[in-house]
Amino acid sequence: MPAKDIYHDNVKAALIKDGWTITHDPLTVPFGIRTNIYVDLGAQRLIAASKADQKIAVEIKSFIGKSEIDDLEDALGHYVLYLSLLEENEPDRKLFLAVTREIFERIFNEPVGQTLIRKLNLHIISFDEKKEVIVQWIP
Prior knowledge:
There is one protein chain. With 139 residues, the protein is of the alpha/beta class. It contains 4 helices and 8 strands; from the N terminus they run H-E-E-E-E-E-H-E-H-H-E-E. It has a 6-stranded mixed β-sheet, with helices on both faces. A two-stranded antiparallel ribbon has the order 2-3. Strand 2 (27-30) and strand 3 (36-39) form a beta hairpin. The longest helix is centred in the middle third of the chain and has 22 residues, at 68-89. The termini are far apart.
């Protein structure tokens, strides 16, 4: 079982405040015959208008490593791997990368970050770690 990110509980609380039910902590995704990978959280909520469930997987990244570029490479690598496996195993679940508001502003709100969002079709949750609220959903 992988170690939890330092913001794990903050994101979990923010999702619950936003109306999500945490269904998996972590979400187990098959990777081959004898191996699994673990996305930090799985959640769902009922969409009242259509009476259908909306399902998400959330990979939380703190960006506290030796450099933001290394952290970005790590986050994007996890995102692409998890996205590929989720598309095969749970195609109705949308993957999100959760980062603090500060990291979103410093990296993903800049031109290079906007290019990554557009080219990789990144879905991002920006959260306030102190208030434990979702600030923004991208897209």
